[in-house]
Design brief:
alpha+beta, single chain
Length: 165
């Protein structure tokens, strides 16, 4: 056996490890750029001076979905479920507007309702550290509030006295 063979094998192993470690951040950047490029037509959704190309928008949405799936596989995005106690009547409309906003502003997040036997669940694919924000969003915008908690404009909430003059 040649004296150089162990050095060549060790060097090859180190090179493979270095390429493998540096490939993940490069792949994440690639898919984020791919998501950004795909959202170009979607970003013109609210621009009335521009005629929308529906085929380009459909292709962009498909590319965005593929990029989100790849980012989830790479561990950049995670999935979590948030139970909704009693959804508001306009919860689906709010969610559709939020989805259009995320797609048009190049935010790689996907949100959808799922019906289970236990109730409605909001399935979120986003960065792992954003769960508390999604919990707040569900409690604020998607769930019905008790009648006793809602007050009219300019009125204090029920159970709270008037402030001293």
């Amino acid at each position: 056996m040649n004296k150089r063979t162990p050095k060549i094998v060790l060097g090859t192993i180190i090179a493979i490890i270095v390429v493998g470690v540096s490939a993940k951040p490069m792949l994440i950047k690639h898919f984020l750029c791919k998501y950004d490029r795909a959202s170009f037509e979607m970003s013109r959704l609210f621009d009335r001076s521009h005629q929308l190309d529906m085929d380009a928008m459909k292709a962009g949405v498909a590319t965005q979905a593929d990029a989100i799936a790849a980012l989830k596989r790479l561990g950049y995005l995670s999935s979590f479920n948030i139970p909704i106690q009693s959804p508001r009547a306009d919860a689906e409309d709010t969610l559709e507007l939020l989805t259009a906003f995320c797609g048009s502003h190049k935010i790689p997040a996907l949100v959808m309702f799922e019906n289970h036997s236990t109730g409605v669940i909001l399935n979120v694919i986003d960065k792992p550290d954003t769960r508390s924000y999604w919990d707040m969003f569900v409690r604020t915008y998607l769930e019905m509030k008790d009648e006793g908690q809602q007050a009219g404009p300019g009125l204090p909430p029920q159970g709270v006295g008037h402030p001293d003059p």
